[in-house]
Amino acid sequence: KLPFTTSYHTRFPEYVSVAERKAKAAATAAKLAKEKTALSPVVLAGHKIADTFWGKAWCRNIESYQDYSNRLPRGRSYVRSGAVIDLRIAKGEVTALVCGSSRTPYKIKIAIAPLAPPRWEALKRRCLGKIDSLVSLIQGKLSKETLELLCDHENGIFPAPSEIEMDCSCPDWAGLCKHLAAVLYGIGARLDTDPSLFFVLRGVDQNELVSAGVVDALTEGVASEIDES
Question: First vs last Cα of the chain: how many Å apart?
């Protein structure tokens, strides 16, 4: 939480420049490196947070959550300043370290419910024959119809707010503090470099969306009527 000054019984956050945040993040990362703490920081190549389909789609999805709208701008500022000094994506979970006003970085944990099996099976069926290679899936080079299926708010592959639980060690009472918002955007940036992590996070195998994989999944356990000879 940013330090506050009091004036006329009103509390305003003390301004901290992007340059100051960058310097603090770099110093904190260097200190942890000396302590032999392995870090996986979110590093943006330019001003954009994401350039690829999956990174952009993730960011668009979180920006569609009305409950998040007030805090997301601060999160964008934080991730651009290099404040997310560590971010790791695993099945159903994201952990991160974010530099703030405290001497030590804040610890972040975001739990995301795995994609429900019935929803995943239905999505595979709707995508049957529409995705011809893993490369095209990972690069997001699919038809508009297929992309709309994957990104559909009700039946697609992205999580809804109700499927996300977040926790930050900072003293901010808000459900979504700026540190959590920074990590949400950091996930989009990380998917830019490794889109396959999105499927890891959702607990599904992306190969099952590719035509051949879908056919195998849909016919699993069904005896073939074709004579082996």
Answer: 71
